[in-house]
């Protein structure tokens, strides 16, 4: 499979690249800087992304919203919409998006990001990811998209290959913790690329 991976040097993106390549897939990494052997493009530049997407089987968007203190919603939405437009222009139907956990429900109609005690440090980023999910649901028609939310906590760790998949509800373990390693998140994402089971919807992955 040929995969265009936007954000290939980030914490999650680098692990998705490694997992996909280990399984024999061809990964073209894309970053804003074009460093470390990656192609250079902004996700919001649909024409540039479309040129890179020609002949690819799937596009993976694995970028975080800006963390410079500015409102991250508009930039992340522009990136997501740029990728959707690029996929259509290049004729690539499969789009997988690395999402956030904040929009997952902790109770019917209650999102994690709206829960008391949700850290202010991550709130704007969580709201931006939630806005992107809403936009993809509203504007992703005609594309085989999947939005994959991690657990509440994600970071570097071990690749176990053992985890649970869910839908719109936050997954927790017996102790009430919600976590996943970036390595196992990557396993779940590449599994979905190889064997699509969640086309047109959001899923989540956690231990």
TrEMBL record:
Family annotation (InterPro entries): NAD(P)-bd_dom, NAD(P)-bd_dom_sf, Polyketide_Oxido-like
Gene3D superfamilies: NAD(P)-binding Rossmann-like Domain
Protein's name in the database: NAD-dependent epimerase/dehydratase family protein
GO molecular function: oxidoreductase activity, acting on the CH-NH group of donors, NAD or NADP as acceptor
Domain NAD(P)-binding span(s) in chain numbering: 7-196
A Pfam family annotated for this UniProt entry: NAD_binding_10
């Amino acid at each position: 499979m040929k995969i265009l991976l936007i954000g290939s040097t980030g914490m999650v993106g680098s692990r998705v690249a490694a997992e996909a390549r280990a399984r024999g897939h061809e990964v073209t990494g894309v970053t804003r800087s074009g460093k470390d052997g990656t192609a250079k493009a902004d996700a919001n530049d649909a024409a540039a992304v479309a040129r890179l997407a020609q002949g690819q089987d799937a596009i993976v968007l694995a970028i975080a919203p800006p963390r410079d203190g500015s409102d991250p919603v508009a930039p992340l939405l522009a990136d997501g919409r740029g990728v959707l437009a690029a996929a259509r222009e290049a004729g690539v139907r499969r789009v997988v998006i690395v999402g956030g956990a904040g929009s997952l429900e902790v109770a019917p109609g209650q999102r994690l990001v709206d829960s008391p005690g949700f850290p202010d440090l991550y709130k704007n980023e969580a709201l931006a990811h939630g806005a992107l999910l809403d936009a993809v649901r509203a504007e992703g028609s005609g594309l085989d998209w999947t939005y994959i939310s991690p657990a509440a906590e994600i970071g570097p760790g071990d690749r176990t290959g053992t985890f649970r998949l869910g839908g719109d509800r936050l997954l927790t373990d017996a102790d009430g913790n919600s976590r996943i390693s970036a390595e196992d998140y990557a396993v779940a994402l590449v599994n979905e690329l190889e064997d699509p089971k969640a086309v047109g919807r959001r899923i989540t992955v956690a231990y």
